[in-house]
Amino acid sequence: MLYFVKPFGQLTWTANADQTVLDLARTQGEDLGLMTDWWENAERPSNDDDVRVALRYGLAATGGIVVDDRHVVTAQLRSTLRALAAEDGVRTAEFDTTPQVMRVNYYLEQMIPGWKERGLTDDGVAESLKHALRESEEEAAEQLAVPVQPELLRHWERAGGVIPQPV
Predict the structure, then answer these.
(1) Counting beta carbons within 10 angstroms of the beta carbon of residue 43, is it exposed (0 to 12), middle (13 to 18) or buried (19 or more)?
(2) Is residue 95 helix, strand or coil?
(3) Which of 7, 13, 38, 134 is the most exposed place for a label (fewest CB within 10 A)?
(4) What are the residue ranges of helices labelled H in 58-122?
(5) Which of the two residues, 78 and 111, has the higher pLDDT score?
């Protein structure tokens, strides 16, 4: 799958192509932005992370930069997990105080003494989320350690795109 990152938050995608097509277009000098029947609107706007990876791994096209989805997914996973981690504590606290959960925990405590003390309901999930977030941060850092391609930076600015800070 490819993403087409465009200025002003526009983001489209296609399932009809992948990195192989991107590489071929690069060697053949093809403009994937002209393949107008390929691109579908994404369910979300583009963001700074999309631009950051496009400036490193993408291919200039009329109207923006085309980039393989694996780079976009790696960058987005970090943001998604950050949001989940931030809301997890609030959601868990609210959930744990509902009468239904309190009754279940009371029952389980009677059947398995120490249930609540060991935190069997939430600790494993929270630790797993923290581990996944650490891994996604490392992968994103590796991905963004690759230098920006100067020609893509110039192309992005000419297309009207704003350079995210830090780039």
Answers:
(1) exposed
(2) helix
(3) 134
(4) 69-96, 99-111, 115-118
(5) 78
* Beta strands across the sheet bearing 64-68: 40-41, 11-14, 2-5, 64-68, 59-61
Q: How far apart are CA 105 and CA 1, in angstroms?
A: 45
Closest by CA to 44, choosing from 81, 79, 84, 87, is 79
For residue 73, give both structure tokens: 């997914």
Write the single-letter amino acid at 124: G
CB 161 within 8 A of CB 7: yes
Query: Whole-model pTM?
Result: 0.77
How sure is the predictor about 114, in pLDDT bands with cuts at 50, 70 and 90? confident
One-letter amino acid for residue 51 of the chain: V
Write down the pLDDT at residue 90. Answer: 54
The answer to whether 54 and 21 are in contact (CB under 8 A) is: no
Q: pLDDT band at residue 58, thresholds of 50, 70 and 90?
A: very high
Asked if residue 121 has pLDDT above 60, the reply is: no
